[in-house]
## 1
Amino acid sequence: MTKSSVLFIVGPTASGKSALAVALAKKLKGEIVSADSMLVYKGMDIGTAKPTKKERRGIPHHGLDLIPPTKGFSVFAYRQFALKAIKDIVRRGKVPILAGGTGFYVRALLEGLSPLPGANASIRRELEREALERGLPALYTRLLKLDPERAKSIGPRNQRRIIRALEIYLVSGNKPSQPESRTPGLEDLGFKPVVIGIHRDREVLYGKINERVEAMFRKGLVREVKHLAKKKLSKTALQGVGYKEVLDTLCVVRQCGSPLKQCDGELWDAAKERIKKTTRHFAKRQWTWFKRERGICWVWWPEGVGVASVRDFIIRKIQGLQNAAR
């Protein structure tokens, strides 16, 4: 790897990205920067499959446990943090390894951010829900504080435009009334990104997802969610797969009565199945996203092949790509 190389390991959830990134970091003298939107939250460990200290194997990990789950986190905030981490790692002579499955985070680093981003469905839904629950004046007051110029030009009654203005701010961090030029991508900043996509057999991947969900429950996912339920979780934190399903089931269990009742076991079995299904759908969306992205070098990881073998294959692949580029 060259001094300015930045290695990305991307792909769907449960594909082995975290373990592979650690193995690569050991071999390449690297440090890992998370590209996962849920790992930023403190206390959300089991449900996000956050690497434990043992799993990190002494490799520094950046982007974990940045904020409490009561706060929101935007792609703009992530890009600022990740760029600072990348520059710091390179300055210390190490290789930054970006590992994760949040496609928008990866794109924000590789291509930069548009001053007027496209629609973000999840943020827009939350703003629409807030308008229903708190009323449009509450959203308008919020916009007035963030961007008075834009708020006054829209007026207090145009819900669609108020929501769009807030959406632009939450996604990009830019005031809608003062759009900046597109932020630069890593190549524009002098770095040489290498993006490796991990490809697994779909049925094998789905099996690993099912096993992971079962393991999460054994490790104490319900206990983790009970603790989190005491707080007012942010809208972005609640997007974590598994948390909403457990919260909903806890509400039903409380209504049923004693947790020792027979129906409760059935409720938790049903919750597990919903989480497995939702996670499989999530993996499929991640796969679709990354298949559309340009410049990804896909690596097939057959079942039964160990992490070390895939690591060594990727290193040879990177060397070939860099030699061809010279």
Note: The domain at 121-172 is CATH 1.10.20.140 (Histone, subunit A).
## 2
Amino acid sequence: MYKVHCINNIAKVGTDALGENFTLTDEVASADAIMVRSANLHEMEFSDSLLAIARAGAGVNNIPLDRCAEQGIVVFNTPGANANGVKELVIAGMLLAARDICGGIDWVDRHYDDPNVGQLAEKAKNRYAGTELAGKTLGVIGLGAIGAMVANAGRSLGMHVLGYDPYVSVKYAWSLDRHVHHVNDLKEIWANADYITIHVPATDATRGMISREAIAAMKDDVVVLNYARDVLVDERAMAEALQTGHVARYMTDFANANSTQMPRAIVTPHLGASTKEAEDNCAIMAANEIRDYLENGNIENSVNYGDVNLGPMNTPVRLAIFHKNIPGVIGAITSAVSSANVNIENMTDKSRGDYAYSLLDLSGELDSKTIETLEAVEGIYRVRAITK
């Protein structure tokens, strides 16, 4: 029986999807897996029993990925599970920026008890007149699960759409509306887009991507939407551009000491994936990832190890080995198994950067001495034998 500890609230439909071989535990030290949403795990000490962490969401900057990799702990995320919820909030953000809906609602709230509110509204409404999205140009940075959906939604709204993503996958490239124009230089988006929305992960390469220089190169009265990560935008430069009027609106889902003080910014409290559907989808996907890994050793949607899949177990033992991506380790693994007079029925190995994962179907069990021999091999982090 595998034990799973939930940090934050994980939708019950997800924990139910774990199946009969799993039970929930309040004791994190005894857990085989952790399911988490936004809690910061960087200061957490992980027990030797912990095998996996599943983030019910896309971003994993709350998890120490390298430390987990070196302990043989697989970190999963759930790409695409919350994409529709974020896409819909982006559309709402564009509409709120185009039409002064918030200002109009505010006006009604101030005059709600005036018996002549109807007549006053007719006179006041011109103050809140806006523009339409149709015919405007939308620049989408990042064409993954969310970005592709936003780009297609922009086309459905009658917008011209420019998309930028040098690493767009075949899967999402095929899903794009054929009228989305793929550009190879961000300068094309800065110079032409009336609305710019960013959908990339927070990495060393993307932090501050919406920089002072980028903002200066944008059209006057541009609307910038950030429903990805606050660190993608130089917030000091954004505040100055809003103050001068060069940027018409900054729409962001990240309330912090900087964004909440910006003039003409509309800030929401991280609502992107806060829909029942998104939370359910993320929880179910996270549960499926944990179940397949713990029961079969298969890895899908890991962010610190490569994806490996040998399907359901059909041999007595499946051996899972985490190791450095260095020469000689595979040879040491096969040599140790062969010396134990056990046959390798099937084997695969996948590397991601400095880390690699080997999965072997064996004809029989390995004795404890062979396991110890493998654990002593230079570069091997963890050895796990899965039995039926």
Note: The chain is about 30% helix and 20% strand.
